Q: What sequence folds into this?
DNA sequence: TCATTTAGTTCCTTAAGTTAATTAACTAGA
DNA sequence: TCTAGTTAATTAACTTAAGGAACTAAATGA
């Protein structure tokens, strides 16, 4: 039934508690050992031992911040030594692939981008493309002047269906990739753990690590832009489905005859994405094409025909998201992507339709966050998947030792520079 | 982020390996210790120690079955001692609540029903109803002549939204329950672990334990009958959503004006459930009502009008299930419930619509099983949730010690009867 | 100065996986 | 029939990491 769970080995205990302590330090800012023990339900000696490992690797640092009770009165007893994550103890590389280009970002553990580059992705075979990517990554690390032993891994996001567990790009029409073994190739060239994922999941990972999903264990990320995507977070983990194709939300079918880019008719994407809306507007206005921004200006200017199209898009989107609530019952839905610039034009009808479609009180009980769009989110997201892999409880079997194990193991030999 | 994972305590290792070994014995039939060690990636001494615990409690028994290589030629070396689960070492009680009645079933670990009873559920307050249920359960155990120390727990399924983790029935229109603390009440009366769940999830649990989902880690159970329900299995675990309301599939909205029993318009249930179909047929034939069986007979007799209604129901159902494939990407979809008696009348158009709605090759890659309907499935399912709780890896924090821990702990004091 | 309180460490114990050696039970060939 | 070879299962010694008690450190306040 569940052969994926790790067996009970001695190392598992330490791995789990390592992750537990590190996660607490990361989440609860400067914090004392005693407080960690309390929050994590661990024994003080265990915390001491684990923290010592982290201090040795310089992953965690002691601050000389003096305790303050808030009300100004100093508390009794020995002052705690506050610990915080050393954000620059390690770095992660994020790669976002597009149809003809790629963005590379190097971030520290806090998600701060320390280096960024754009490249044109030459039109080669998958294998050549991967070699090119690896070359650009090596170059980025060099130019960013980062000690390569401090790089804990590479996250790479791409459009299409990706088998995360095995690191294989199953099917990507835009890249024209099918069954490409992404991570194994990159790992063997670069010598660091690599993680490949669908691009929407990269964004979702950023939400888990730094965004609105930070405090929430079950939420959905809906991306509206050129296409419509969905990231699913269950129990604090990104859910990817049996073979990695979960969340093809844009190709959910609704009652409509509009032709989608995927070749099918009636996809949500064909009605409610930026591309879908502008195509509908172009057809209505008898134009060969129209930019989404111009289309929205027409709507804002009060063009009834265009308004109706956008409103309908909002309704359809709202109903589809409402159906998601029925299925997933999340605490939170984050809507993001370039499409958020449509604002209330799209989201007022969306909210209405959403409450109508959700079962019982689900529509009112679920928080909805419309998040304005930052272009750097993709890049941070790709890197944050690596950080996330480092922090998550190592409960399931993995292809290889995770970033944290690597980091701790390395400096047993290497010393503490 | 993920405070739900258990901390790394010494007992965790043994708990995890206990579960691992027991699961292997349960799944792989009569099996030797050596083979368990191989499959489970455990050391032989660990297996021996764990198996000894199980033998002491009589949960597992040694058989004198002689090894046979299949080709008749006896193998070299010492013959393995084959182990198998003692199905009657423990019993679980399952309760299925309906609007005005309840079914109680007592099963052994293999899911064999050893006792079964029906009761009318008197129309009382939730608290009185729970007392009544507890009374009937105690009676059932007594009449079934089972040593009460061998009863490992109670599973109770009900229509509506149930918070499984906290054992609370949040909202059940049929029972007129809202915020009822089911398990804590039953546990305190009966003195055994209790688990409350949505009724569809009970069926799904049965599929995991004994059905088509036995070998599959990600699948969906779609129940078609009076209503339409959905059970979601991810990584071998039933997924219940943030507050237990995941899987309100019957109230997913489609393009339709039909009024659903829930008060909303356009629910899938209003179009494609038994009730929905017969209501549509009744309206078309200008009858006040018609039985679903008669309606299907009309269709089989060739009534074009009725055929169109059933066909449309199948299409809508297929499109909705196809959308589920896009979202969950399961390996398998099991369709079950009374509605399966409609046969190809409903499922031929369903299959067609399904393939059209699923993205890319998802429709062809996913197995679809239409499962004929056994009435005892609900009852077995409720009990099997307890068995499932006993077998599953104890990775997450639980309200109290699970059934396996209970069983092993009890007979340290009690001896091995 | 000294009792009190909270933080953090040290040392010993204990549970449970790990390893290697040992015993058990069997087959096949000389 | 004896012996070498092989697989199964157990035993005993070892190791790791959590658990717990005692102890040191550092602060407050009378």
A:
């Amino acid at each position: 039934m569940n052969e994926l769970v790790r067996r009970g080995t001695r190392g598992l205990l330490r791995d789990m508690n390592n992750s537990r302590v590190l996660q607490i330090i990361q989440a609860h800012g400067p914090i004392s050992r005693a407080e960690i023990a309390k929050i994590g339900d661990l024994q003080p000696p265990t915390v001491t031992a684990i923290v010592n490992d982290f201090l040795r690797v310089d992953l965690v640092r002691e601050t000389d911040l003096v305790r303050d009770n808030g009300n100004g009165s100093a508390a009794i007893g020995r002052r705690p030594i506050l610990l915080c994550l050393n954000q620059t103890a390690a770095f992660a590389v994020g790669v976002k692939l597009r149809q003809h280009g790629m963005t590379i970002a190097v971030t520290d553990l806090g998600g701060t981008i320390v280096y960024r580059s754009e490249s044109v992705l030459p039109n080669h075979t998958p294998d050549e493309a991967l070699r090119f990517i690896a070359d650009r990554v090596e170059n980025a690390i060099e130019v960013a002047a980062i000690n390569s032993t401090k790089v804990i891994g590479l996250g790479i996001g791409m459009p299409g269906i990706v088998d995360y567990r095995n690191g294989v790009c199953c099917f990507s029409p835009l890249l024209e990739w099918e069954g490409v073994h992404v991570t194994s190739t990159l790992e063997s060239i670069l010598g660091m753990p690599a993680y490949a994922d669908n691009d929407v999941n990269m964004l979702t990972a950023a939400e888990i690590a730094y965004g609105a999903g930070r405090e929430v264990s079950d939420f959905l990320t809906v991306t509206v832009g050129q296409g419509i995507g969905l990231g699913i977070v269950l129990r604090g983990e990104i859910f990817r489905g049996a073979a990695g194709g979960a969340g093809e939300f844009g190709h959910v079918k609704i009652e409509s005859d509009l032709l989608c880019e995927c070749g099918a008719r009636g996809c949500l994407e064909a009605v409610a994405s930026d591309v879908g809306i502008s195509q509908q507007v172009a057809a209505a206005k008898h134009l060969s094409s129209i930019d989404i921004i111009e289309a929205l200006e027409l709507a804002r200017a009060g063009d009834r025909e265009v308004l109706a199209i956008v409103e309908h898009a909002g309704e359809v989107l709202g109903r589809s998201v409402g159906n998601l609530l029925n299925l997933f019952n999340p605490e939170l839905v984050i809507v993001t992507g370039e499409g958020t610039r449509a604002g209330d034009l799209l989201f007022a009808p969306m909210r209405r339709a959403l409450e109508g479609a959700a079962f019982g009180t689900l529509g009112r009980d679920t928080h909805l966050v419309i998040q304005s769009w930052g272009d750097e989110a993709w890049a941070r997201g790709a890197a944050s998947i690596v950080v996330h892999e480092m922090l998550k409880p190592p409960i399931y079997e993995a292809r290889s030792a995770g970033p944290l194990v690597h980091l701790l193991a390395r400096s047993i030999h290497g010393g503490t520079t």
About this structure: Residues 10-11, 13-14, 17, 42-43, 45-46, 49, 74-79 of chain A lie near DNA strand D (CB under 10 Å from a C1').
